[in-house]
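Action item from last week, closing it out:
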Amino acid sequence: MSLSDLRDNLQEIYSAAHDPRNIDLVIVPNLFGTRVYHTSRGWGRLWRWLFNLISPFVGEDFKLKKLRQAMQKTERTFQEHLIHIQDHIKTYQGYLQKKSTDDSLDENDFHTSRDAITEWNDATTIFLKALQGDKKEKITEFFDKYGTWTLENWGQNFELHQQMQKIIDLEGHLHEPLPLSIMVKLATLNELEKEEKRTLDNWVSKLKKLETKIKIGPFHDALRAIVYSSSDKELDAVNLANLEFILSKELLLFQHEDPEHVKWRSSLKKGGSVDCNGNKIILGEQLGRKLSGVDNDIFFSIQDDPENVVRIGKNRAILGLEKRFSEFYKSGARSAEFLEIDDEGRCAIVERLQDPVAQDEPEEIARPIAGAVKWMVQENGTPRNLSPTQFMFNKEKQLRSVKLRLLGNFDYIALEKFIYACAKEDRNIFHYMMTQSDLYSHHYRKFYRKMLKNGLKGRDKTADVVAIFFKEITDPKIIESAQALYDEAKKLKNSCCQKIKKHSDVSDETLLASNVRDAIVECYDSAGTGSILWPTTEQDVIAFVTKTMKLQPKVSVQTMVST
């Protein structure tokens, strides 16, 4: 029996195992005793009809005899190929270990093993997964009845075979060998040589082009298999986090949702359980459920443990990444303390946070929020989708991030909006946080201020032209928003002048325009804004200019006549 026949037989048995009827009622052999089929489709219907036709002449035992023959050949073929595949696994493992220190190996020596492992997994994976699940008893009963071999060793080294396959699949996506020695160096935090850095950059560039095709689940599994096949077992989890942490700085793939993991996550309910490194955790209430869309993370309270919660990410890489992130950056927006992370990344036990930042008074959160933003400015990076709802205090009143805070590209506008949301329209608190976070003194704000003044003075230089004189200004989003501020300032000045003239007697319009310009800049600076104007700027400017110029209200014609 060939490997393809083995695959077909196992797939038919797998299908029959998911039929509500007993397997032997929906499985039929062929006349040669080599294949089995599900009776509800294709060849299965034909063989069922044929055996029903000839059974009066050959007896019912003839069909059972052919079924036993087919099952015994299936068992024998499986065992023969299992022994054969172990040699290829050892060969490929040896390749991984040698390649982790020597990139000059001849790849042609290992293609045969790659192909053999792939063919084996293609033939057996679906069946062996079912054998580990809730269909195990049903399948075992069928094999006990018609076979001669025990199924106990059928899953031997199944996880190892799957790990090797993940690596081979990643090689296949890239159509080239992986830079294993470089990856091991990254995992163990060893310095790369100049040529190695160039090789890594090229490899990451290829990965970026394939980010929409590569799934985070298998990618994480491949990296895990690489690290686990080459490193000290006691350091595996740390090394994997190191490797993924470094790669995550360039790859958005780590932010992707793993549909299979999220599907499992969505099945969890109060009273259910999760396994964390062999420990069964009973789930309490789900905390902070999102009203619509998919949560990046979900949290459950833990039965009989009020101090901690279970956290489950949108993929199996992200929790280890964040833990490594918090360890690497000792300041800034650190996450809740990780007490334990499941080795496979399914869940984590973290400290329970107490007070949401969004519900606290602005003056109580100003200092820690400013400190967190200052750290982001210093690191020249910004987390995605930054919001006050993502920050809470622990029981020691230390600011903690509720969810993943990996830094993306620096985003001045997002940080300013974040501070504005935290300040809750309190201008003094906003100014304090902008100043203490270094956003006020940032070169982006200097550029914004220049464009504001240009707009007020009616200068025609556009933001892209002015940016030439600011060497640090290259972000198109900053240039675009600065142009918008220019336009807004221009309109604001005209609006303020018109409203003042409408309600007050103005003898010197040139002086009025000058005072309005100065007042807008003063309001801009006193609020501490960068890309925006404070919402009350217009009314503040009108009140200030009217008072300082000692303007008198206009007297209507009706008032003059009555007088």
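Closing note: DSSP finds 22 helices and 13 strands in the chain.
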